[in-house]
Amino acid sequence: MNKFKYFVGIDVSKNSFSLAVKDTDFVIENKFFHMEKEGFNSLDKLLSQFKHSCIIGMESTGIYHTNLFYFLKNKGYNTVVINPYKMKQFFKFISDKPTKTDRKDAKAISEFMEISGDGNILSEQEKYQLRYIVREKENIIHQIAKVKTDIKRLLVLLFPEIEKYNVFTSSILNILLHFPSASAIRNISEKQFIKKCEKLTKNNGRKSTLTPEKIYHFASNSIAYQYPVYEKLLIMKIKSLLSLQDQLKNIKILINQIADNLFKREIQILTSIPGIGKTAAIHFISEIVDIKRFKNVSKLVGFCGLDTVIKQSGNYQGKWKISKRGNSHARRIVFIMASCVKRSCPQFREYYLKKRNEGKSYTEAVIATSTKLLRTIFALLNENRLFI
């Protein structure tokens, strides 16, 4: 029996949110608020009469629901975030038309809350923060790769002789910040340049194979023309790269802190499988969040988009392929983990080779290994035990 008398559904969009409150019938429906402080306070004033006898549910909407969620939590309301997939399935079940509006959604959410009772099947909002931060880390890594490519392209014009070397050490980047082209280096004597480089690279750790003497020699014989505008652009790109690298360092620390606080046991279990490191474990758990979300291993495999499908029509018989309908981030990290465990873990190595001997291609064998890995992970997390 439900311990709440009122069931509140809130449907959130970027600039507004709608409200529905249900007892046996709807007490409030089709009430709209703006996504601003005044709207938050108006909601609090309206819901205060139900405060100690209601549970509030809102569907996860990326980041748009987060401020409202914490506002209500801090005000003392019983507030939970609903798994979007479960809400979608429930909406299909109760709807007799394929239409979808915010007003209908708010009422549907309140009805879902009534059926769900105390919210045992609802997600924990705090744990979903890790997913957002991990994806932001991946975004920073992609930005770093792009900026490095841009720097290489500019060096083809400004200093092509050093472009083939590793120019991304801290010492070389620092030199290029002050001397962004072969032309800029040629403007001073070799003695002055070497003395300046010694100051610039004094506390930059391991020395580069590109010594100041070698750099000056390359600059003296460089084919590069003078491009003052490109020099300024190179300096901007280097500063951007250094900033992104600093962000990456800080976000890695933050991710480890959150993961150790919220998923310590899950990480221990995943890393007990030979070949799975802590970083891969964190990335995987940030996507699935809670293994209890999945009723069986098939649901987990489908979530990762590794379930197989076949396309056929008439006399045409297609090939079995993975659906790729699930979470692309989870699928990518599972594929990476499978590639590692097939090298480091005898059980998975044996399974991978078996598939190869059956005539499977490399990709097909790794996909099969990925599915086996998911079955193993599902069992370990549900049974709360380490890999033996």
Strands of the widest sheet, in order across it, are 3-2-1-4-5
CATH class of the largest domain: Mainly Alpha
- Give the number of domains: 3
Kindly report how far apart the N and C termini lie.
42 Å
CATH architecture group name of the largest domain:
Orthogonal Bundle
Mean pLDDT level? 87
Order of helices and strands: EEEHEHEHHHHHHHHHHHEEHHH
- Helical content, roughly? 55-70%
Poorly predicted sequence stretches spanning 5 or more consecutive residues: 119-123
The description of the largest β-sheet is: 5 strands, mixed
CATH topology of the largest domain: Helix Hairpins
Describe this structure in words.
The chain is built from 16 helices and seven strands. The chain has three domains: 6-123, 2-Layer Sandwich (Nucleotidyltransferase, domain 5), CATH 3.30.420.40; 132-253, Helix Hairpins (Orthogonal Bundle); 263-383, no CATH class. Helix content is 58%, strand content 12%. The protein is of the alpha/beta class.
Provide keyphrases for this structure.
alpha/beta; Nucleotidyltransferase, domain 5; Helix Hairpins; 3 domains; five-stranded mixed β-sheet; two-stranded antiparallel sheet; 16 helices
Question: Which secondary structure elements does this structure contain, and how are they paired or packed?
Answer:
Elements: E1 6-12, E2 16-22, E3 26-34, H1 37-47, E4 54-59, H2 66-74, E5 78-82, H3 84-94, H4 102-116, H5 125-158, H6 170-178, H7 182-186, H8 190-200, H9 212-220, H10 228-262, H11 264-271, H12 278-288, H13 297-303, E6 308-313, E7 316-322, H14 328-344, H15 346-357, H16 362-383
